[in-house]
Amino acid sequence: MIFLTGFPGFLGTRFVRALAEQHPESSFLLLIQPKFDAQARGVLQDLGLTDRAELVHGDITEPDLGLGTRHDELAEQVTRAFHLAAVYDLSIPREIGWKVNVDGTRHVVDFLEQAPDLEVFGYISTAYVSGKRTGVVREDELVHDTGFKNFYEETKYHAEVIVQGRMDAVPTIIFRPAVVVGDSETGETAKFDGPYFILKALQKLPPVTLMTRIGSGTREVNLVPVDYVIDAMTYLQNQEENIGKTFHLTDPNPLTTQGVMETFTELLDMKVAYVPIPPAVARALMSTGVGRFLGISPELIDYFDHPVHYDTSDVENALKGSGIRCPRLPEYAPNMVDFMQKHAELRSDAMY
After folding, report:
1. In the chain, pLDDT over 90 holds for what percent of residues?
2. Which domains does the chain have, with CATH numbers?
3. CB neighbour class for 105 (10 Å; exposed up to 12, middle 13-18, buried from 19)
4. pLDDT at 349
5. What contacts 177, CB < 8 A, 6 or more positions away?
6. Residue 328 carries which DSSP code?
7. Element housing 72 (H / E)
8. pLDDT at 222
9. What is the pLDDT of residues 206-228, one digit of tens each?
10. Best label site of 80, 146, 171, 302, fewest CB within 10 Å?
11. Cα dist. 162→34, 143, 175, 305 in Å?
């Protein structure tokens, strides 16, 4: 049985669909919050998996995952497990982030230590556990003392520390995605956050306009389409030799901040003159009515002027021969913009 948290979220839904195709004989145990029950049932029906999945109400912030007397019984049935549930909001308060991301991960690992037939545990971390580190960050590196840009990074870092510390007891593969955007072929996404805030802000400006350029504009901005993340995780978790490894699901050749802005403004048919401002000024500006009008949070600024590069040597080697590659932003940005323009009603808030 495949155990998974984070359903019916956007990543979780796509991952369940991919795993169901890869393991047609397997059933699913999906831990969900009760408030998502109706949505989860609808998604399962759409996927044609109603007969192959059991929805179990629970709560990762509880020591027993909220499973009560079923805890041990369910653990004994699990053969593969994937932990996607987390708070992904850059502005989360530390207390909430710690409770969900750190304590929640610890409770999931505790549960999996009681699963005698567990073959693999896929933990979805984030590339941004690197925090304020600069330069090249490698896939086999984690521990550092350089600090973090926000509580999201800090809590995901401490969660991964827990996971890595329990690898001797739980057969684990760690995945570290960068900023996940819509499908590279369809543009489909579940919410408009991250770089979509920039796209939406640009749409509020006249076609010929001034635009602030954060810092030098030469720093990398790492974006990855959701289909690459799902395809890579689905393939990698099915290879036994990957147990014990960590993989950056990041763009090996990301555009710079200026490159991203030029890609978006060209697609929106805009002519923009850029006014460089220091990142600290940009953060302060986004904390005012200007930021509220544009819909850009101050926390987002940090990701457009941070000198870091995520090495992908291990994941590229592991994916060799699979045909799976991360497309570059110019290849799929037209689909991102087209989908956003046709689906203005989508939310931009995090799903707690």
Report:
1. 80
2. 2-180+223-249 (3.40.50.720), 183-221+254-306+328-342 (no CATH)
3. buried
4. 52
5. 124, 126, 127, 224, 229, 249, 250
6. P
7. helix 71-75
8. 97
9. 999 988 887 888 999 999 999 99
10. 146
11. 27, 11, 14, 29
